[in-house]
Write the structure tokens for this entry.
Amino acid sequence: MWNLPKKCRAVIFDFNGTLFDDTEFHNQAWTEFFNDHRIRLTNEDIDERIHGYTNREILERFFNKPLHSSDLNRYYEEKENIYRKICDQNKEQCVLTKGAIEFLDFITSKNIVRTIATASYLINVKLYFTLFRLDRWFDFNKVVYDSGEYRGKPFPDMYIAASGKIGIPVSECMIIEDSKSGIAAARNAGAGIIMAVAFNGKTDKFSEFDYIDGIIDDFRNLEPYFQEEIF
């Protein structure tokens, strides 16, 4: 069901699991990282306590204590090195979500303002800009990432910051997300339109969110709906 009565002046994208279907890579990386530290993750842990959250929140949650910045940095690097190794081993899967290039080209051609708000670490954002040539569509300096200054999703901080960077009120932005915490963050930020990405038709995880405006399998599904009258 679609409910898109509002006009939007900008689009804010989550990245991991939205523009890049790397959720399994991160799941594997977190599982391997915590196994190395003798902590066993369940599927529920991954879905409810990891997706959408910042590295700091995840680490302190599972280690069950505040962590000094030096420990955080060491753990960040350890986990992200595992993640990047997995990406390198699966290069053929390192592609943007189906239809994303066409959709990004479309909104760019219409001069629709756009940016990214992601819980990813800076080194990974730089990797994505190189790997996917994101500078075709995005200004790196307007991307919001896990710099340590924002609370993670479901808090609205990252989306409010992204709105500030592009100079468009959140209420006039479309936010596209794949995680439950991200959907809640979009709602808490006051997004004009909230779109959920559910790969392979797995829409059940969003059943509790009756305020979502639409659910897509990938960006090809947007073509019939994203015409000029929405923007």
